[in-house]
Amino acid sequence: MPDIDVPLITLNDGATIPQLGLGVYKVADDEAERVVRTALDAGYRHVDTATLYGNEAGVGRALRDSSLARDEVFLTTKVWNTAQGYDETLRAFDESLALLGTDHVDLYLIHWPAPRRDRYVETYRALEAIRAEGRARSIGVSNFSVSHLERLLGETDVVPVVDQVEAHPWLPQRELRAFADERGIVTEAWSPLARGRILDDPTLTAIADAHGVSVAQVVIRWHLQQGLVVIPKSATASRIRSNLDVFGFELDADQLAAIAGLESGQRTGSHPDDVD
C-alpha cells in the first residue's frame, strides 16, 4: 500500500486525527464499500460517515475486508437529529456500532445542534457516557456555532475535540475557528470544495496552473495550511487519489492572501440554526 505521510493533529484529549480524510456523504451503502476500499488502498486512514448517510454498513464492510488493522483507520460517525436525547442517543450509537461491525469508533459527533429541538446538551451528556465506556475514543460536535458551543461548554464536562462545519475559501469561518482554537477545539471542514461550485474560480485556477495541479488540490492544500482537518468526498477513484496527492507543493504567502480575498460568507449547505 502507498506510504503517504498524512499529518496528524493532536486533539485536546491526547488522541490524534489524520488531517486529511474521506467523506462519504451521499454515497449509497452498496457503493460505499468500493469507495472506502479504494481510499484505503490509496493511503487514506480517516473515514467520516454518519447515521444520516445510510452507508455505515458499507463503510464497515470495507474496513473489515481491508488488510489494515482496525486501529490503523480513524473512523467517525454521527448521531442524527431525530435520535437526539440521552437515551435515544445511546440506542442510536448501539445501532451505528452494529452497522459498522466494530466495537468502537474513534470519534462520535452530534450531527447538528438542531436548536429548536433543544436536546443537544442532553445528547452530548450521552456522548460523554459513551466516551467514559471507551466505545467512542473521542467526542465532538458538528455544525455548532459559537453560541451553541458556549452553552455546551457551560453545561457539560468534556470539551469537544472537534467541531465539524462547512468551511472553504468562500466561508473560512474565521470567528468560529478563533473561538474554537482558544478552547482547544479542532475545526474540521465538510464541503471543502463548496460542493464543486468553487472549482471554476479564476483566482484558484491561476494558482492551480502555477503549481501544475488541480483547483481541488489547491483548495485542499489551503485547508491543510489553515490547520483544518479536511474530508473531501468523491466516489470517483481518480479523484479520491488526486485529493490525497496534495503534499508535493505548498501555497506561498501571496497565494494565501489571494485566497483570503475570496471570502464572501456564501454557504452551500444550511445554516446551523435552520436545521431541525
From TrEMBL:
A GO molecular-function annotation: oxidoreductase activity, acting on the CH-OH group of donors, NAD or NADP as acceptor
Catalytic-site annotation from UniProt: 53
Documented EC number(s): 1.1.1.346
PROSITE patterns referenced in this protein's UniProt entry, alphabetically: ALDOKETO_REDUCTASE_1 (PS00798), ALDOKETO_REDUCTASE_2 (PS00062), ALDOKETO_REDUCTASE_3 (PS00063)
Residues noted as binding substrate in the record, renumbered to the chain: 111
Gene3D superfamilies: NADP-dependent oxidoreductase domain
Site entry (Lowers pKa of active site Tyr), positions: 78
Domain NADP-dependent oxidoreductase, chain residue ranges per copy: 25-262
Keyword NADP: yes
Keywords recorded for this protein, A-Z: NADP, Oxidoreductase
InterPro entries in the record: AKR, Aldo/ket_reductase_CS, NAD(P)_OxRdtase_dom_sf, NADP_OxRdtase_dom
Pfam families to which the protein is assigned, alphabetical: Aldo_ket_red
UniProt similarity note: Belongs to the aldo/keto reductase family.
PANTHER family given in the database record: 2,5-DIKETO-D-GLUCONIC ACID REDUCTASE, NADP-DEPENDENT OXIDOREDUCTASE DOMAIN-CONTAINING PROTEIN
Name under which the protein is recorded: 2,5-diketo-D-gluconate reductase A
Species classification: Bacteria, Bacillati, Actinomycetota, Actinomycetes, Micrococcales
